[in-house]
Amino acid sequence: QEARAAAAVNHPAIAQIYDVDEDESGVFIAMELVPGKTVKALIQGRELDLLGALEVGVQVAGGLHKAHEAGIVHRDIKPENVIVTPDGHAKILDFGLAKLMEPQSGSPDEISHMETLAKTQAGMVLGTLRYMSPEQARGQVVDHRSDIFSFGVLLYEMVTGQLPFSGSTPLDTLHAIAFEETRPVSQLRANLPPSLQRVVSRCLRKRAQDRYPDCRELSGDLKTVQREAESGISSRVPLGQRLQEQLRSLGGLAPREWLVPAAVGGLVVAAVSFFVWRAQEGLGSLFMVAIVGLLVWRRLRNRRQRLARKFVGKAKRLREIRLLALDGMKLTAVADTAVANTYVRLNAILDSINASMFFGDPFTLVVRDDLTPEEFRALLTGPGVLYLRDDPMERQARLA
Question: pTM value?
């Protein structure tokens, strides 16, 4: 039943379920094959930096919000159940696919790593031990806020490389989840935005009612942390920037959220109407209207170049980027080695740039780390090169 409900949920951050069938031997589920690496593998390989971890977090929070809107609670959010594809997109696996694990003999450490448990009746414990919410650990009925707690554990581990709750035995771990407070992430990793600790702390509140009410608000706060991490400035967002962000996201706003952008738009219309009215009184005012129109047209005409330069300004901060080029609306990034974190970071930058486009086709991005010397030289000597890393080998290739 849960798998069929999950099949109706369509979101870029959720692995799609195509079909569900059942016979006497069990349930069979046809699911999207997702290439890439699990977040667990990325953490173990130290392939996630802060911005990469935040981008994965924003995507996962968006997928959870979509599922929660459909009345589905995952109940087993953990790094093994999130895959990052080669092009940098996060996918949540195993919605509604929890399975019952029989008690196993073995060492306490082996038992503490027990996999997914199912909730098939009220009061049964489910989830993966170290990522459980307090209510899961007690065998209580859970709702979407249990996923928010598990997401907080996931986020904590992505940015610090450590688990917030861990004991020498399963009972010690359950006790820590239910009663102990975590060490602030800033104590485990330097130079983190203060707002990140506030987000993690709110996710990991012991009482469900003290956590985020939903993943939409959680995602919004994570995006604020992203901006602070990129800029290195932790401060309140100025009014002008808040208005700009509202204008950029008009497509995704609920009707009640249109108030500020609509007010700004109304002021613009009023100003234009005033100039037109003044134009009727003389050529001088008409000339003023023409000048204003020319300036607006010029700014819109050059918008593509400005956004491309903005992309370059952010993308070139990645040390592995060798070259950036633009052909029409296609951006090409040449990297030494394009690991998953490279795709995550570049796609996050691209999404923010495309969100700033008011009309026209969006930019697309191709990441290459497999160019032959001849292909690299052809790209380097062709038109549209926006950035070339300054090192002797690159200069030699350009002169060759």
Answer: 0.63
